[in-house]
Amino acid sequence: MGRIVGHLDADCFYVSCERVRHGSLRGLAVGVLGNQGACVIAKSYEMRAFGITTGMPIWDALPLCPEAVFVKRDFQWYEVLSRRMIEVARRFSPTVEYYSIDEVFFDAGGMTPADARTLQRAILDEVGVPVSVGLAASKTLAKLASSSGKPFGCVSALGEERLRRLLDGRPVEKITGLARRSARRLAPYGIRTCAEFARADRRLIRRLLTKRGEDLWWELNGAAVLPVRDVPALRKNISRGGSLAGAVTDPDRLAAWVARNTERLVEGLDRHGVFCERLTLILTFKDGGVDQRRATLPVAAADFAVLYEAAVRLTNACRPQGRGVTYMRLIAEELTARRHAQLGLFDRPDPRQKAVAVVKRTINEKVGRFALRSGATLPLADVYRDEANAYDVCDIYGKTCF
Whole-model pTM? Predict the structure, then answer.
């Protein structure tokens, strides 16, 4: 109980970053658009007041807020400011964990609320981005505290009275790590708020939500079981995907998107030095339907040919003909460090595929990303001509921002 954890979360980070370099955007209803400029991926508080939500198509957002200003995302710029935020945080704490591009956990031992406000002001003055800060006895409580104080709040949940005010009446879905499905599982037992979750029988939580739920129970009761890490933990999965810039019905164009996201997924696997043994595909359709398929690979792999073949099979299994696919995500799961991966008796790497992969990676590193890519991506010539599509939040390395 003597440990203090801090959580720092930027307010409307992408919008705030745009306002740093375009001061005229301050006070306006601003929305940041995704890769192909089709969906709102971030919005200012002024825009939020009009009922615009994250993921809303721009053609639905414009009628709600005709005076809105929309800008296309620039993750290179956002990463620059993210790193500056981290540099400032490191002056105040010996241990800082990169949690995402716009938030960090930090060891706040010995830090008072006044110190936290000094940190908050330093980031605003030096980086130009407003942040909210939470102090508590655990990571889960600190994140709840920072979110309760937005925007530009500094909330301490240290002490029984402050902790009670934080948990009472707050929906259980606000606990990081609990999805709606978990909330539905808890509801029949009268567990609908964070306070009710903390007061519940630990063994019941374990039975309903496994060890992950039990860890959160301990965290909400002030026992810090989730460490603050300055070195990222081994990833459980790596994913790539996003909006397809409209509803895709053409089979060749859909296959091209599969190839593009597979190549990006291979980049991620290479970067982390892992193979995957299972691949999951998620497709969202214009009619509102969602289909998810999963396949176990014949061998642990990280090469394009194996993953692309599996991804195409999964896509065909979803039967997307004529439905119009608007969103795609590929998830590599059951990751294994390459030095620990074992091949089967008859699994022998194809030296030609390996040689092609090496040439492809070498050329792209020297000439530019996607300079050499799969021929299956040719139907997406318009996407590759747009320089903004050469960079995505999932491709920012050096931090856990997936």
Answer: 0.73
